[in-house]
Amino acid sequence: MEDTIIGLATLVGQSSVAIIRVSGPDSIKIVNKIFTKNLNKLATNTINYGYILNNDETIDEVLVSIFKAPKSYTTEDVVEINCHGGLTSVKKITELLLSLGGRMAEPGEFTKRAFLNGRISLNEAEAVMELIKSESDRAAALALSAMKGSLTTEIKSIKDHLINIISFLEVSVDYPEYDIDDQRFKDIEQELDDILFNLKNLLDTKLITDPLINGIKIAIIGKPNVGKSSLLNKIMDEQKAIVSEYEGTTRDLVEGNIFLNGIKIKLIDTAGLRETEDVVERIGIGKAKEQLIDADLVLYVIDSNQNVSNEDLLIINKIKEKTIIVNNKVDINNKQSKIDLPDYKVINTSALTNHGINELKKQIINFLNLNNINENQEYYLNERQYLLIKESVDILMPIANNYSNFPVDLQLVDFRIVCEKLSEITGEVFYEDLINEIFSNFCLGK
Amino acid sequence: MKFDIIVVGGGHAGCEAAAIAAKSGKKTALITNNIANIGDMPCNPSIGGSAKGIVVREISALGGIMAEIADTAILQMKLLNTKKGPGVRSLRAQIDKEIYKKNMQSYLKNLDNLTIIEDLVIDLLVDNQKIIGVVGENNNNVLSKMVILTTGTYLNSRVLVGSNIKIEGPHGERTDFRLSQSLIKNGFNLQRLKTGTPPRIDKKSINLDLVSEEQGDIKKYTFSFHKKPDYLTDPQRPCYLTYTTPETKAIIQENLQLSSMYGGINEKLGIGPRYCPSIEDKVTRFSDKERHQLFLEPESLAYEDIYIQGFSSSMPENIQLKMVKSIIGLEQAVIKKYAYAIEYDALDPLILKTNLETKILENLFTAGQINGTSGYEEAAGQGLIAGMNAVLKLNQQPPIVLSRDQAYIGVLIDDLVTKGTREPYRLLTSRAEYRLLLRSDNADLRLTRLAYEKGFLPLNIFQQLTAKEKDIDQLTTLLETTLILKNQENNQKLLSIGTNEIREKTFLKDIIKRPEVDINQLIEAFNLPRYSDEVSEQVAINIKYQGYFDKLAKEITRIKKHELASLKTIKDYREVKNLASEAIQKLNSVQPDNLGQASRISGVNPADISMLLIHLKRGKNNG
Q1: Range(s) for CATH 3.30.1360.120 in chain A?
Q2: DSSP states of B39-69
Q3: Domains held by chain B: number
Q4: Exposed/middle/buried for residue A344 (C-beta within 10 Å: 0-12, 13-18, 19+)
């Protein structure tokens, strides 16, 4: 890592402070040429007040932080110039630095150096990325815990166990006449089950944490005048207090985001299809179809006084595992309306009388597992990590299912492949193209 | 006297090198300081074992001689790991040492082109960084175009028994320091290694009632391909299994300070083999183990010596006697030869190129324990390759460099020249990442063609190979294309061979895939044409393991891309941007051929490999 790189660590645009970060062997030397204090005489991890000068011209009044190697983000010498925000100052200082021997950093290059220099593991680096992107408290909390390396620890523990099994089997292979612990052979079957259990648990967390990171989508569909709007108002009404806490959430309740338990919920309204009465026709319009497929939960609202049309059933049949039928307006007949749809969860409601609303909310929370998402959710998996764990599970399952017939030489091949995959998750093993791709998703300056 | 190739040392490496050189028509000299000791097995009276047994098969497939000589001297034979899958199965035989030596010597004596000279080599003749011959003690200069050093554990050796230090080679043979001096003078760095051997006891003094008998396998095998088994005795000779006792442990612990290796008596402590530890090592490192397993192995039909496997030691003789007598069944044991540790000079194999030629002196090759390995089979494998490459260099042809997915010998040599070794290196199956491909059953299919094409095997051997390949092909095609219909007769047959019925018409190949199905039984039940056992075994393994071979093939392709990325254009690694300083130092020292080899050097990290890749890519763009 010979070059000295320069990046803007804060967003481009108008803000009161901007941070320009410089990392590399010449960072102190370069900044020293333009800063009024001598960085070589300053202690590491200090913030120092001064000016940036271009010969005699004063460019800006600044605070300069100095981090001497290896006690810095990248483990190289790092200097951060906190200057006034806005384009002018940033541009002038950056140009000055470039002219003195630095070069612009590539996207994510600072974090890439932190990783390549061994200061953080790969998934900790990915977590930094997630933290920057996170839009909700819960997502942020997860990213922070990932940065602390809890996933790395869990993966490492599983991997260590597997390595232990591999070692035992390898000894039995290379020293076949050695008096080895025969009992262990029988125990391995159980140990394998334990490993699979732990891996599958990790997979399950994705189901829980995905919504935290990406937000949950609920699609509400139904013919006009079945009472969708009033129903929605009733559901969201109780949350109004929470809703209004966050600035920027729209009051158009059938479109937009609300935050529930610190979790972002996105409501998708297909009311745009209100124009035609025929559901089939509406669904035929591709966009709506996509939204239904995309949704984590579909609330299909019907008027209890009307029959469920066959066309309607055709559509929701395809997504029945994630559909709740909301049988609204039961107040009119003043009876429990019977719907003969055993495959579906049906809730009888009346937006008017509040009947069934609590039940409906409970069902939404249950269905989306919102209660299980507790404060202590430790890890989250991104797509890359999820796939690696899933592949590991797929490899280990056939062995666990037919253990007594599965020859040891093949077991060892598979166990080693799984170890390699687990190492890829934490970044102990990585392939060049992968690294470039991960880090290019970063914005500049971090 | 001028030769094409001189081999110095008549151990397992030397015999292979000399034999292949002479058989290739090169005027060869084997110089040893004791002709009667050629082919000696100084330690374990066995050949083979996990991974090592496969090396012996590879030697046979390539045209070496260890396998065929071993086959003439078998006292007992076993196939190891039979239940763990073909990927780790391996042969191991108890060998009659005297018969092995006798047959090896007579084989070599009968070779045209080979001159056996009894002399002690004390110096190298060098001209302009090229070797041109050796100097014998009797003041004879022997000139040669190529020289292969296979001096084993005889360089500057010391034999240690308690505080007793003798300047001696194994079993009282001569040792000398002058060749070591010559190597140092020529710029080689030597390292000091040690190994040990256990005591030998008189068979008659064993209480056979207290130990358990271990028999050889009922099914008979040979190391060589295309040979019929012909053991020395019928029934095979047994070995005996016994154990140390808490008393043994106590004696050792109380007297540890008297042991040469532990007692601090020996200041020039050489580094011992981790995988063949002395009994003192075992008791110290595994101090909570109450007992250690030992095997009592016959050494020869000609005498009553029994080798105590697992009990090497450097304790004083009187302590050894106490230790031996505390072993179950050996209470009345009579020691015929005492155990000892032996220290010797060796080279760091990082100074070797991938063809086993040294980087320092051109035309000088080294093979065997001088390169820091332990084991007869490891030595023989290197000796064979060094001999072949000396011949090929004389013929101005490119060398044989076996890759890690081709042979255990390839894994061995790659490990040595890329990673070096600081303790005696022993082959284990776990060192081979493609172990599943490097099997005992397919050594000929992997290597015979190569050896033939390079001129090391006669046509008739090659024809045997092609005939076998053809049979394998035919049987495989038959199984892949034959459908059996779902009917009562077929289902009955399937049940009779221990597998389930089929519900629809099925290819025979898919029946073979079932783990419980044995191919020979299937062939019998369905009246298919018979082939030899090796052929049907091979076909079955290929079918059953196909999925895994595919997995490995993908992996190999990915690695091969790195192997193909040549680094020969880089002379000084300081010119590559962003390399860690340790990587620069290691890369400059090893000078790897390609990126794949570079990635295996210790101290070179994935990040460094990335930098090398970028450097190579940039070079392509500019070039």
Answers
A1: 5-118
A2: T---S-SEEE-TTHHHHHHHHHHHT-SHHHH
A3: 4
A4: middle
Residues A251, B165: Cα–Cα separation, whole Å: 95
Residue type, B185: K
- pLDDT for residue B583: 86
**What torsion do the CA atoms of A12, A14, A15, A20 make, to the nearest 10 degrees?**
40
What 3-state DSSP class applies to B211? coil
Which residue intervals of chain A bear CATH 3.40.50.300? 122-427
Pick the CATH number of A122-427 from 3.40.1190.20, 3.30.300.30, 3.40.30.10, 3.40.50.300: 3.40.50.300
Percent share of chain A, pLDDT over 90: 24
Q: What is the pLDDT of residues B325-360, one digit of tens each?
A: 999 999 999 999 999 999 999 999 999 999 999 999
- Our CA-based measurement puts residue B83 at a distance from the nearest CA of chain A, in whole angstroms, of 7
For an interface test with B, the pick among A115, A174, A428 (most B C-beta atoms closer than 10 Å) comes out as: A174
For the entire predicted model, the pTM comes to 0.76
The answer to whether B87 faces chain A, any CB pair under 8 Å, is: yes
Structure tokens at B255: 């007297």
CB nearest A408 (choices: B88, B548, B577): B88
Is B516 in the A-facing interface, judged by CB distances under 8 Å?
A: yes
Are residues B174 and B317 located together in one domain of the fold?
Answer: no
From B500, B524, B549, give the residue that closes a domain: B549
Q: In CATH, what number is assigned to the domain containing residue B573?
A: 1.10.150.570
Task: Please state the rounded mean pLDDT for residues B223-234.
Answer: 91
Residue A311 pLDDT greater than 80, yes or no? no
Considering the domain architecture, whether residues B369 and B414 belong to the same structural domain is answered as yes
For residue B558, being part of any structural domain is answered with: no
Which of chain B's residues have a Cβ under 8 Å away from the Cβ of A416? 433
- Using CB atoms, pick whichever of B83, B552, B607 lies closest to residue A116: B607
Domain extent for B241: 200-340
User: What residue of B is the nearest CA neighbor of A429?
Assistant: B606
Closest Cα to residue A146, out of A219, A102, A230, A212? Answer: A212
Interface pTM (ipTM) of the complex?
0.81
Report if residue B515 sits inside a domain: yes
Cα dist. A429→A378, A383, A445, B4, B578 in Å? Answer: 23, 18, 25, 48, 19
Quick one: tokens of B508? 């025979």
Q: Name the residue type at position B543.
A: I
Q: How far apart are CA A95 and CA B432, in angstroms?
A: 54
User: CATH number for the A5-118 domain, one of 3.30.1360.120, 3.40.1190.20, 3.30.470.20, 3.50.50.60?
Assistant: 3.30.1360.120
pLDDT above 90 covers a percentage of chain B that reads: 76
CB pairs under 8 A between A and B: 70
Inspect the interface and report whether the beta carbons of B88 and A435 lie closer than 8 Å.
no
Q: What is the least distance, in Å, from the CA of B70 to any CA of chain A?
A: 21
Distance between A174 CA and the closest CA of chain B, angstroms: 5
B86/A170 Cβ within 8 A: no
Are residues B324 and B288 part of one domain?
yes
